[in-house]
Amino acid sequence: MKFKKHVFICTNERTDGRECCGEKRGMELVETFKKEIKNRKLAIEIRAQRAGCIDVCAHGPALVVYPEGVFYGRVTPEDVQEIVESHLVNNVPVERLKLNF
């Protein structure tokens, strides 16, 4: 099955004390995204899943949306509905959360 959008949410947990997205915060986002996608009946077109490190640790909790390759940082569960509506449904990235490299 090919998805139109794929959301990879970092759940990497560093053990050396350096800043990271963290498994607890990351998995909370994974579950929130999955619930929002399911409630909107978008699961056929959009997939959200946990990922290992996506190399933006200082901006965690973080995620990336493909195929665009848009990275988001400092995402909270309260931001999920906005990301789903704006970016995943309407193809308009959420600028206030977008990481610009």
Based on the model shown, name its key terms.
alpha+beta, 4-stranded mixed beta sheet, 101 residues, Glutaredoxin
The number of E-state strands comes to 4
Q: Helix/strand/pairing class, anyone?
A: alpha+beta
The neighbouring-strand order within the major sheet is 2-1-3-4
Number of helices: 2
The CATH topology assignment is: Glutaredoxin
Could you walk me through the main structural features you see in this protein, from its secondary elements to its overall organization?
The protein has 101 residues and is of the alpha+beta class. The protein has one domain: Glutaredoxin. Helices cover 27% and strands 19% of the residues. The protein starts with a strand and ends in a 12-residue tail after the last helix.
Describe this structure in a few short sentences:
With 101 residues, this protein is an alpha+beta fold.
Lay out the secondary structure.
Blueprint (H helix, E strand, L loop, with lengths): L4 E6 L12 H17 L6 E6 L11 E4 L3 E3 L7 H10 L12
